[in-house]
Amino acid sequence: MRELVEFMARTMVDHPDEVSVSEKEIETGLVLELKVAQTDLGRIIGKHGRTAKAIRTVLNSASTKRKQRVSLEIVE
């Protein structure tokens, strides 16, 4: 899952070297924390959060296939 989010984020931003994804286990599943350069934050979130919602939709679909609960947090 981490690799999927990292791949999607790197293709969208101007500074792909500054993209990092960390995993955090919680009792209900897995939380992925996405960090990008400050200038690329708008690209990841998108207008009215549409891009972030699309990333979460793809992640939800992939995690459902693996029978796992995964959520995404975009960290500033």
Please, could you describe this protein's structure?
This protein has 76 residues and is an alpha+beta fold. The protein has a single domain, classed as 2-Layer Sandwich (GMP Synthetase, Chain A, domain 3), CATH 3.30.300.20. Helices cover 42% and strands 26% of the residues. The protein starts with a helix and ends with a strand. The relative contact order is 0.23.
Please render the helix and strand layout as text.
Layout (H helix, E strand, L loop, with lengths): L1 H11 L7 E7 L2 E7 L5 H5 L4 H16 L4 E6 L1
Parallel strand pairs: 2-3
Antiparallel strand pairs: 1-2
Provide a compact summary of the structure:
The protein has helices at residues 2-12, 41-45, 50-65; strands spanning 20-26, 29-35, 70-75. With 76 residues, it is an alpha+beta fold. A hairpin with a 2-residue loop joins β1 and β2 (29-35).
Strand order of the largest sheet: 1-2-3
Order of helices and strands: HEEHHE
Count of separate DSSP helical elements: 3
Q: Report on the biggest sheet.
A: 3 strands, mixed
User: Total strand count, please?
Assistant: 3
Q: State the end-to-end CA separation.
A: 20 Å
How much of the polypeptide forms β-strand, as a percent range?
25-35%
Could you tell me the CATH topology label: GMP Synthetase, Chain A, domain 3
Shape: globular
Average of the residue pLDDT scores: 94
Rg:
12 Å
CATH architecture: 2-Layer Sandwich
Structural class: alpha+beta
Number of domain modules: 1
The CATH class assignment is Alpha Beta
Specify the helix fraction band: 40-55%
Identify low-pLDDT runs. Answer: none
